Amino acid sequence: MKYMLLINSAPTGADTADACTFEDWQVYDKSVKEAGILVDGHSLADLTTATTVRVAPDGERTVATDGPFAETREVLGGYYVIDVPDLDVALDWAARCPGARGGGSVVVRPVADFEG
Amino acid sequence: MDGRAAVEAVFREEQGRLLASLVRRFGDLDLAEEVTADAIETALVRWPVDGIPPKPGAWLLTTARRKAVDRLRRDKAHAARLALLQVEVDRAAPAPAAEPGADLPDERLLLFFTCAHPALPSEDRIALTLRCLAGLSTPEVARALLVSTETMAKRIVRAKHKIRTARIPFRVPTPGELPGRLPGVLQVIYSIFTEGYAASSGPDLQRLDVAEEALRLARVLHRLLPAEREVAGLLALMLLVHARREARTGPDGDPVLLADQDRSRWDRTMIEEGRALVKPALTGGAPGRYAVQAAIAALHDEAADLTTTDWPQIVALYDVLLAIVPSPVVALNRAAAIAMRDGPRAGLALLDELAGEPRLRDYHPYHAARADLLARLGRRAEAATAYRRALELAGTEPERRHLRRELGSMEG
């Protein structure tokens, strides 16, 4: 069963006293790989580099940057897709993720299965 | 007893066990529910003719399993998916043996934990527990929780969809996980109880059948987890409160305050059963919230009247409770106990300190308690103002009638 862990960074100004270090991420990333559950995963470049595309009913394309960047909301900073037996196991991996600490959060979404 | 009633009586007792056994075996709540219903229908036809079998539970399980296998033969893709799941389930939790005297092993614990899973919204946990473990139909669950059948049907479909799609497992937490997961199960049972005990809205103050479903669930859970002290504490608390049910409302359905209750109408048998559970619930390490609340309820139940109640001990227990559950509602109850121990002025001073709490601003018992203390101090105009505020906020008609009477005596 595949789950995506969507890692949201803490909004600026949140209490980041127990924020994690780069080493925490390395340790976590290594443990996900060594557990043999990793399907895919990336961290995303910062939000100032994001570009939004919308296509209107008449086919007209608008391209926008997602600014201004107040950073008072949670922002998707990266994701993992893991393959584990059930939601309890997925929630355990989410809880171990450094992104769940220091005011951040990890949203666990099952990947849709169109074969069942 | 006619055939159908006899069969339904057996079914009521066995339904939860049957469902739990089938869920564990097939890992699919919908399939388990369907074949449970099928097996019951078959029993309704066969038993009045053939007689009730010597092991009705085992008969129902065998019949339901055959029906499940039939269905899976017709739906190969579903079967393949379930078979894969089942390997994991069997590895995680080997089936327990039936205890002596029962003809089905009791696997209901896994249903308790799945129905109360933290990944489900709390209203869905209550609905699922009533349906899967109390054996209520969807319209009955809807009536119990005062929502329309249509709303409840949607809620149950949504909850089952999440269990299936997000694959919330059917399993009993490991001993290491239990301290994190058991409070959620207890919360569901206690919410069902309080919904029945003090209906949050509607024409009646108490809906005893709902409270009794909660008691039944707590008894089952206590039987399944006899060493868990908070389970004993919750069962004790509910027994010690439910023992006062006959005295809690007047002939017109209006609430009767503890001070005015006819204590001869309290259920002594239930009080004794509850008291016997308080001691083990409190013994062996720091007590939990339900054990402490049960101890407070026991002190009330043991007292002949309000003045001979052991208020110093009750205040001491509220101090312990406030340390476990630092909630303004507990602080409110503690203030009321201090008013009984040290007089209304001391209680009022504490209540006024709580005036800024957002959770108490719209909580009618806070304003009613304040009004009562003001009245006892002879500050009638302020008492009337507080009663008016409580009246604006009270949810049930009997509560409003009671508050109107109190308000009338302040203004008269």
TrEMBL record, chain A:
Query: Which Gene3D superfamilies did the record assign?
Result: Dimeric alpha+beta barrel
Q: Which InterPro entries match?
A: Dimeric_a/b-barrel, YCII
Name of one Pfam family that matches? YCII
Family as reported in the entry's similarity comment:
Belongs to the YciI family.
State the name under which the record lists this protein. Answer: Uncharacterized protein
Lineage runs:
Bacteria, Bacillati, Actinomycetota, Actinomycetes, Streptosporangiales
